[in-house]
Amino acid sequence: MRKCLGLLTAGVFLLQTCSFATARAPNALERAIGDAQPCRSLKAKVSSFGISVEVGVDKLDSVKIENLQFSVNGDAAEASARGTLACKTSDEALIEGGFSATAEVRLKADLTTCKMTDTSIEIVKTGGRFGDIVKGLETEISAALQRSLEKNLAKLCEK
């Protein structure tokens, strides 16, 4: 009986550990965005005491998809998502910091050609030390997200 209770306790502990690890793991969409490294090309100018320095906010910190809606009607697909992307400077940067940007993304795609026919990416909220600079980087962030979406849509046609 003790042996059974010990095994049961170990099993419950193992299941709790596994479910905790699973709950913290990024989903497939978050991993795809992370794999595209959307922060890689982002740079910002920071002024302090009259000196301007270019800072690379080029390391991905996190990606969180809050909601995603997807519909298909024949060969036409539509998707909309809301999520937050956070980027930071490298640990060796002279000025350390980062930003987060919450974006709403809408797209339409033709599934016969695997091409996007319409895309809209809007940054609706920013935060972090360099959050105010994000509006100036909106074009670069939007382009990086669009490249990631196009790349992953193209993968559907490879199969």
Structural class: alpha+beta
- Number of beta-strand segments: 6
Number of helices: 3
Q: Main β-sheet, in a few words?
A: 4 strands, antiparallel
Poorly predicted regions are 1-24
State the helical fraction: 25-40%
Net shape: elongated
Task: Output the helix-strand order.
Answer: HHEEEEEEH
Terminal-residue CA separation: 53 Å
Radius of gyration: 21 Å
What's the pLDDT, averaged over the residues? 76
Strand order of the largest sheet: 3-4-5-6
Strand content range: 35-45%
Describe this structure in words.
With about 160 residues, this protein is of the alpha+beta class. Helices cover about 30% and strands about 40% of the residues. The protein has 3 helices and 6 strands; from the N terminus they run H-H-E-E-E-E-E-E-H. The strands form 2 sheets. It has a 4-stranded antiparallel β-sheet with strand order 3-4-5-6, with helices on one face. Strands 1-2 form a two-stranded antiparallel ribbon. The termini are far apart.
